[in-house]
Structures are given as structure tokens and as C-alpha cells.
Write a structure and sequence with these properties.
This protein is an alpha+beta fold. It has three domains: about 140 residues, Nuclear Transport Factor 2, Chain: A (Roll), CATH 3.10.450; about 120 residues, no CATH class; about 290 residues, 3-Layer(aba) Sandwich (Beta-lactamase). It is built from 22 helices and 24 strands. A hairpin with a 5-residue loop joins strand 9 and strand 10. Helix 17 packs antiparallel against helix 19. The longest helix has 21 residues. The N and C termini lie far apart (about 120 Å).
Length: about 625
């Protein structure tokens, strides 16, 4: 083959390849490229990149940014649905997803708390979706130019002077009901009174004018306290107080006349009776917020400059059911009144043994400043723990209520010197007398021969040490670790050492004795708590013997102040605290009401027993309800 022929064949072959490449080109057109880049930028929520592809980047950036801000989606996807490369036009499919309970704007004027929002997200309500198709483009796009800017390319009907908004729609506000069916908490209008120091030349003068108006409602609010809070706010507006309508009405005009003071209306879940307070209400507010979120509707709206809005998508909300609680208003009020005047931290928890329903959770102001101590505060239970110690001893089989045991004023047991209160000495007495008179020395000696887990196991039979998950209620019962040495058991036997309990936990102990088994605690009717273990009840004979001994405590023991109250049973307790006054306790049973009274730093059980009397006497008519 000659060189010339070879060259000619090669030339033809290369030419054919080049021509074939041109003829089979499949690259995207200008229209397809522009449409895809615009859709991808919107899906990435890259406002500037999407706007830069249009003929008016400034106007487009404003509209696109407002769209994402106003709709606040959990997800947004834009897909090129079709293109016409000759005309330069294209269509986009949009798919927006919104989470239930999440909204850019809430009509009630209040945003859900973080705990409520987290709980709502965890319960995974149905997602809310909005889908539609838009179109745009033109010859300029086909020629490789910018996409002609038109707000309607983002959403149907959107214009340059309109905005998009996603909002939750309340389906009706449920009430929180007391155990008798009466409203306990309802959604009410409140007014937040705010002082803006930047709006007035002399914020101190405004504080001085504001304080006298608020002091009859909130005595702790003074001109000095407002000024101090303003300084801490460092120039930011200060929310001074939130007022109910009944408190606002007499002073509304005077507030409006003070320079720098503004009044903002909101809605909140409040007690019907302003005087009713309880740490249990916080959990009920969370449940209420969850119910609101779960039943809320939603809407995507096209909002005009004059504020009028047109519905684009959404669904109406449904009315959430009322939340029926087990709380008894009369028992709650009595519990509050019984401890309100005490200077020390004090708490009362009451439970109905037959159902486990929580009847009252009360704290005084000193306790409230420390948090929900009635439900989660852990303290040595002192001699109230002798209920557990006596139960363990009776189950051990070595004693009966009538077994005569020594009760010296002071005893050295396993190297630990144990005194009775004021070193009282009873000599030798039956166990039931030692219980009623609260003999530390007797109980300490009984514990020496117990197994390391005897007290731990007996405590769990009464719910102490069990962790419960209870709708609307966050609680800790207490802790009774195994006591490996006799010395540790001596400490534990009298409610000291490593033994701790909350007022809630000791109320559950009393309820367990009354019922004969531990009731599942319950705040919302029909929704009992679930424990991390199911307590095995103490033998019925033992709980009957304990109830008899608890009655003797009132008739002839350490709680005779309550002897005028028919059939009340209980156990007193004084718990030592290193370097501080002792805590005072009383746990009791009055028919179908079991309760615990705790007074921190009382230095004896006396203040707790007296508070128990103030609590019980007004509710005798309610005890069997």
C-alpha cells in the first residue's frame, strides 16, 4: 500500500469522526441549563445564586429571601418539570414541607416553649406539604441571557408587593380540668409591660413612676429593682411584669402615660384562680402545648401590603380535647395554706391511694425559689423511713409488733453512737411502742442483723427508689442503696447515711401502706405512670400492722397534736443535716388521702406535724370523695 493511499484513508476517517461528533451532540440547551441552575439554587436555598440568574438580581434576592424566611420550611425542593428550548421557557415543580407545630407566625402571639417543640417533634405528627407548578423564561433565556424576573416564578400569584407566610392555625384551646371537672387552667389574655430605656431621656424617672402602680400586685417590684434590672439588660427593652386583665384594668391608663412603657397583649395558659400555684402546673402546660401543636391547622398565605391575606394551601385545625387531671382544688388550696406562712422551705404532696391520682402538690415561696423540690428534691427522710425499717424487720420474721425490745436513750451500735430525740429512755417496750415513740436505738439495733439489701428491697415495695415516667409529671422518688456493712445499715435504718427521699417519694410510701401495694402515680386521668420496675407489695399482714402502728403514733406517740382528727395515721421524722438545722417530716394517711409534709431546717418534726394538722382539718369533708 502506497503512502498516498494510506494518507487519504486516514484523512477521510478523521473527517468522518469529526462530522459524526457534531451530528450526535446531546449537550443541554441554554434554556435547560438556566432552568436547572435556577432550580438547584432554590433547593439549596442559595438566595444570591438564584437571584444572580435573573434579570433583576436585587428584586429577586429580596423576594426569594422573604419567601424562605416567611415560610420557614423543614424542606423545599424545586425540580425542572419541562422546558421549551426554542421559546426559552420552562416550568418548575415546587414541593414544600412544614413540620407540625413549627410556624413563622403564631396567631396567639406566643411561641411554643423549647420543651414543647422538642416533644412535638419527637411524637412525629404528619408532615404538611404544599406542591405547585410555576413557569417563566422567554426568548432571552434561549439566547443565553438572564431569566426575566417575575415573582410568580417562585409561587402562584406572587407579585412584587406581596409576601408569603406560613402560619399555624389554632383549632381551639383546651382547658385543663381539676379532678371534679371544673376548669383549673385556661388560655387567657395577659399583657407584658415593657420599659425601653432607649425611648426616654431618663429611664430612672420612668422606673420610679412605674413601681408604685405595680407594687400592690407584685410587692417585690420597686423602683430600685426595676433600675437594677435595666442596668443588667444593658440597653435592651426590659419586660418588667406580665399582668392578667383583672390586674391591668385599674392601671392601664396610667401605664400608657409613662414614657418608654409599652403594653403587649399575649395569650397564656393560666390558673383560673390566681392564688392557685403548684410545681405540677409546668408539666400540664407542656401537655397543653403539645395538644395545641398536635391539633393545630396550618396555612400558606399570600399577604398583601394592606395586611389582607389569601389562602394558598393548608388545613383547618381541630379542637384539642380538654386535659382532665386528678388534682383536687380543695385539697390543693388546703395544702398551700398549711405551709404558706412558714419561713423555711416547705412542701406537701398528697396522693389518693386507691387510684394513684395526685391530689395536691404545694410549695411555699421559699421552696419555689429552689425549684420543684416537692417532686424532685432529695433529702434524708429521717425517722419517717422507720416505716421501711419496721417492714423489713417484720418480714425478716425475727420480730412481731408485740416483741419487747430495748429502747435506751443512747446506744453505741457498730461504732456509731445513736441517741433518741433528747435522749429519751423507754427501757424495754414492744416494737409498736418503739415505732410510735420513734426509738432510734431500737431501729438501729434491728438493722444490724439484716441482709445488705433488706432495706433497699423493703423500700422498693413502697415505691421508694422506683423511677416513674408519668405524663405531665417529672418526679424522683428517692434512693436506698444496699448497705454492705452493719454500720451502714444502722445509718440507713433511721433514714440517714445514703438514704434520700423526695416529698413525692414519701407520699408514695404512705399511699403504698394505705393501699397495700404501690399505686402507679397519675396526674392526668387515665394516664398512670410507668415505673422502671414493678414493686412487689409487702405482705398484707405487714401493711396492716404498719397502719396500726401509724395510728398509735398519733394517739400515743410523737404526733399527738393530730389526735383530734379521726383515724389519721402517720409517722414523724427529724433528719440530721451536717452543720445545719435538721429537716422536719410527717407522712400520713387520712382515709383515701396519703401525704407527706416536708419542712427544711425546722430542727424538729413539730412544724411538719403542725402543718399536717392545718392541711387535714379543712379537708375532712373531701377525704372520702
Amino acid at each position: 500500500m502506497s503512502p498516498g493511499i494510506t494518507f487519504g484513508v486516514a484523512t477521510v476517517s478523521v473527517s468522518a469522526l469529526v462530522l459524526g461528533g457534531v451530528a450526535c451532540s446531546t449537550g443541554p440547551t441554554e434554556t435547560e441549563t438556566a432552568a436547572q441552575e435556577f432550580a438547584d439554587a432554590l433547593t439549596r436555598r442559595d438566595v444570591q445564586a438564584a437571584a444572580a440568574l435573573t434579570s433583576d438580581p436585587t428584586a429577586a434576592a429580596t423576594a426569594i429571601g422573604q419567601m424562605f424566611e416567611g415560610l420557614n420550611p423543614t424542606d423545599a425542593r424545586f425540580v425542572v418539570a419541562s422546558t421549551d428550548s426554542d421559546a426559552g421557557t420552562f416550568a418548575l415543580d415546587a414541593d414544600w414541607t412544614f413540620a407540625a407545630g413549627a410556624a413563622a407566625d403564631t396567631p396567639s402571639g406566643t411561641a411554643p416553649t423549647s420543651s414543647a417543640a422538642e416533644t412535638t417533634a419527637a411524637s412525629s405528627p404528619p408532615a404538611r406539604e404544599w406542591t405547585y407548578t410555576t413557569s417563566g423564561g422567554g426568548q432571552a433565556v434561549a439566547d443565553g441571557g438572564a431569566i426575566p424576573w417575575d415573582p410568580a416564578l417562585l409561587a402562584p400569584g406572587l407579585t412584587a408587593d406581596a409576601t408569603l407566610r406560613y402560619t399555624a392555625l389554632a383549632g381551639g384551646s383546651p382547658a385543663v380540668l381539676a379532678g371534679n371537672g371544673s376548669p383549673l387552667m385556661t388560655e387567657q389574655t395577659v399583657t407584658v409591660v415593657t420599659l425601653d430605656p432607649t425611648a426616654v431621656p431618663d429611664p430612672t424617672a420612668s422606673a420610679a413612676a412605674l413601681a408604685p402602680l405595680l407594687q400592690p400586685i407584685a410587692p417585690t417590684v420597686t423602683a430600685e429593682s426595676i433600675s437594677a434590672d435595666l442596668a443588667a439588660a444593658q440597653g435592651r427593652p426590659l419586660s418588667v411584669i406580665t399582668l392578667r386583665d383583672s390586674d391591668l384594668a385599674p392601671i392601664e391608663a396610667q401605664l400608657a402615660a409613662i414614657p418608654g412603657v409599652t403594653q403587649v397583649k399575649q395569650t397564656r395558659l393560666l390558673t383560673v384562680d390566681k392564688a392557685t400555684q403548684s410545681p405540677a402546673f409546668e408539666g400540664l402546660r407542656t401537655l397543653w402545648e403539645e395538644a395545641q401543636a398536635d391539633t393545630a391547622g396550618w396555612a400558606v398565605q399570600l399577604v398583601q401590603p394592606d395586611g389582607t391575606a389569601r389562602w394558598l394551601a393548608g388545613q383547618d385545625g381541630t379542637a384539642a380535647p380538654d386535659i382532665a387531671t386528678t388534682l383536687d382544688p380543695a385539697i390543693q388550696a388546703s395544702a398551700q395554706a398549711a405551709i404558706a406562712g412558714l419561713p423555711q422551705q416547705a412542701a406537701i404532696v398528697a396522693i389518693r391511694p386507691s387510684t394513684g391520682g395526685v391530689l395536691a402538690v404545694a410549695q411555699n415561696s421559699a421552696a419555689g425559689a429552689q425549684g420543684p423540690i416537692a417532686l424532685t428534691g432529695l433529702y434524708p427522710p429521717g425517722s419517717t423511713f422507720k416505716i421501711v425499717t419496721t417492714s423489713a424487720a417484720l418480714q425478716g420474721g425475727s420480730v412481731t409488733p408485740d416483741t419487747v425490745l430495748p429502747c435506751p436513750g443512747v446506744a453505741t451500735i457498730e461504732g456509731r453512737t445513736i441517741p433518741n430525740d433528747d435522749n429519751f429512755d423507754l427501757g424495754s417496750v414492744p416494737l409498736h411502742t418503739a415505732f410510735a415513740r420513734s426509738c432510734n436505738t431500737t431501729m438501729g439495733q434491728l438493722a444490724v442483723s439484716m441482709t445488705p439489701t433488706a432495706l433497699h428491697d423493703a423500700a422498693q415495695q413502697f415505691g421508694l427508689g422506683v423511677d416513674y415516667v408519668t405524663p405531665g409529671l417529672t418526679t424522683v422518688t428517692g434512693s436506698v442503696p444496699p448497705a454492705d456493712t452493719p454500720a451502714e445499715r444502722v445509718e440507713s435504718a433511721i433514714g440517714q447515711g445514703r438514704v434520700t427521699a423526695s416529698p413525692f417519694g414519701m407520699a408514695l410510701v404512705a399511699a403504698s401502706v394505705a393501699r397495700g401495694s404501690t399505686p402507679a402515680p397519675m396526674l392526668v386521668q387515665g394516664q398512670p405512670g410507668v415505673g422502671d420496675t414493678t414493686p412487689t407489695p409487702a405482705p398484707a399482714a405487714v401493711t396492716d400492722q404498719l397502719k396500726s402502728m401509724m395510728r398509735e403514733t398519733v394517739t400515743a406517740g410523737t404526733a399527738t397534736q393530730l389526735a383530734d382528727i379521726p383515724d389519721v395515721r402517720g409517722k414523724t421524722g427529724t433528719a440530721e443535716v451536717a452543720g445545719q438545722p435538721s429537716h422536719g417530716w410527717f407522712v400520713g394517711i387520712d382515709q383515701d388521702v396519703a401525704f407527706a409534709v416536708f419542712v427544711a431546717g425546722a430542727d424538729s418534726s413539730g412544724p411538719a406535724v403542725d402543718a399536717a394538722g392545718r392541711f387535714l382539718r379543712p379537708i375532712q369533708a373531701y377525704a372520702t370523695r
